[in-house]
C-alpha cells in the first residue's frame, strides 16, 4: 500500500509527539488495531450519569428536584473551568477576558431561566412532603458555588459587611472564612454557636476552601482585571462584560433563587424555614448582602442602590 503524503506527514507528527514523551510510536499504532471505536454513550458516560439519581422518598417530583440540582452542579463546574482559563492565562488581553466572562454569564443566564423548572415543575404539596427528608442538607452547601465566589473576587468583598473593617491582607485565611457573608446563614451571632448545617459543611470543605482561596488570592477575576493596564481596564466591551457578570450572578440569579424559595418555603400564612435552618431571606436578598464582585466598575449610586430594583 502506497502511503499518501498526508498520511506520511501525520505519522511524522505522531512520531514527534511520542518521541517527546519517550514512547514508541509503533506500540501505540499497534494498540489501535485492538481498540474499540468510541460511542456517544461511552464518551458521555451516559449509564453512569443516569445512575446518579437516588430518591429518598416515593414522591415523583423529588426526582425533578434531584436532577435539577445535579444539572446546576455540572454548570457550576463549567463556570469554574472558564474562570480558571482567565485566572491562569499568562498574557491576558481584553478580548479573551470579555469572551470568557460572557460565556460564564450565559451559563448563569441559563441557570436563572431554568428556575422555572422548579417554580412551575413541582407540586408544592409534594415538595413540602419530601423536603423534611432532606434536613439538614441545603443548597447553601454547594462547595462549587462557594469556589465560584472565591475565584471571582477579592476575599474582602465576600466578608460580612459588619466585619470588613476588621479584615485586611494580614488577616489569616481561616479567620477571614469565619466572617464570610454566608456564615450569617449558619451562625447565631449573639452566641457564636454554629448550626449543624454550617459545622458539617466546614468539616467537609474548610481545608479545601482555604487552599482554594490561597490559590486565587492574586489571580481571581477581579485581581486579574485590576492588574491590567488602564487602557485595557477601560475597554468598553470588557467593562460591560464585567458588569453583566456581576449583576447576573449577584442579583438576577439570586432573585430567581429567592422567588422560587418564596413559593415553596413561604407556602401558607407563616414564613417557612429552610431545610438547613438558615435565615434564608436575609441571606439571599441582594439588598441585604450587597455582594459585589467588581466594585470599581460600578458608580457609588449603583452600589448604594444594589438590589433595590428587583
Structural account:
There is one protein chain. With 310 residues, the chain is mainly alpha-helical. The chain has a domain at 72-79 and 93-118 and 144-158 and 214-304. It is 60% helix and 0% strand. The protein has 17 helices and no strands. The protein has helices at residues 5-20, 25-34, 40-44, 46-50, 61-87, 94-113, 115-119, 124-130, 143-152, 173-177, 196-215, 221-227, 230-233, 236-265, 280-284, 286-289, 300-304. Helix 5 (61-87) packs antiparallel against helix 6, helix 6 packs parallel to helix 14 (236-265) and helix 9 runs parallel beside helix 11 (196-215).
Q: How would you summarize what this structure contains?
A:
With 310 residues, the protein is an all-alpha fold.
